[in-house]
Amino acid sequence: MPITAAEASRRNREVCALAPIVPVLVVEDATTARPLAEALVAGGLPALEVTLRTPAALDAIKAMAEVPGGRVGAGTLVTPDDVRAAKEAGATFGVSPGATDELIDACEAEGLPLLAGAATASEAMRMLARGYDMLKFFPAEASGGAPALKALGGPLPQISFCPTGGVSPSNARDYLGLSNVICAGGSWVAPADKVRAGDWAGIEALAREAAKLKE
Q1: Which of 1, 117, 122, 160 would staple 136 via disulfide (CB 3.0–4.6 Å)?
Q2: CA–CA dist 2, 65 (Å, integer)
Q3: Residue 96 backbone zone (phi > 0: left; psi -120 to 50: alpha; other: beta)
Q4: 147 and 41 in contact (C-beta within 8 Å)?
Q5: Which listed residue (38, 49, 108, 204) is catalytic?
Q6: How is residue 95 annotated by DSSP?
Q7: At how many degrees (to 10) do helices 101-110 and 80-89 cross?
Q8: Nearest Cα residue to 170 out of 131, 201, 209, 198
Q9: % the chain with pLDDT above 70
């Protein structure tokens, strides 16, 4: 069913409030998707973003959608075709590096809540004008990091963000301590070497550490 901007923002706020970190995942092998999701969920990170950057991404979303307690979304949405494919695969929210009217319209038509990227005041204001008050701040570090995001909060206190791009254990608390940040996106909780080795216990441990970042 179609979705309004207000409802999309409400649902994304709910997803972002589940844990301080949303794992940003680049899945190369779909057979690793389910155990990877299970490890992250067990570690306290239930909201998962699978980026549409590999041929295995859609199959990975399908597998992760079946994991109890998990909320899987599709990242790197760029076109309406991406939106439709992600929704069909089982994604419950979408994430994009930026936003176009065409992409926003497709997400609303498909009923897929969009967490759209914005890096400037003008981009954030444009999304706010369309009814979106929950956004992704991307690329976070390259756009000025936590100080830049804090500065945006002055004139735009009604917008909340999920900073992504360069967020790491060393700077995550800087972002999470801001009043306009609900969560942050990070890839360090699922390092490629641990995924290839099937070190699900190691990934669960990283997730547990990340889940405590906002305590």
Answers
A1: 117
A2: 21
A3: beta
A4: no
A5: 49
A6: E
A7: 30
A8: 209
A9: 100
Residue whose pair of structure tokens reads 């490890």 in the numeric block:
39
Could you read off the pLDDT of 178-199 as tens digits, one per residue?
Answer: 999 999 999 999 999 999 999 9
CATH (one of 3.20.20.70, 3.40.50.300, 1.10.238.10, 3.30.2420.10) for 5-206: 3.20.20.70
Q: Return the amino acid letter for 24.
A: V
Residue 212 annotated in active site: no
- Quick check: helix, strand or coil at residue 77? coil
Q: pLDDT tens digits, residue range 112-170?
A: 999 999 999 999 999 999 999 999 999 999 999 999 999 999 999 999 999 999 999 99
Question: What DSSP letter does each residue of 96-139 carry, written as one string?
Answer: ESS--HHHHHHHHHHT--EEEEE-SHHHHHHHHHTT--EEEETT
Structure tokens given for 41: 């969920």
Cβ contacts of residue 108 below 8 Å, gap of 6+? 2, 3, 4, 5, 8, 114
Which amino acid, one-letter code, is at 157? P
- pTM reported for the whole predicted model: 0.97
Distance CA 213, CA 167 (A): 12
Name the catalytic one among 62, 87, 136, 194: 136
Q: Rounded to an integer, what distance in angstroms lies between the CA atom of residue 159 and that of residue 167?
A: 20
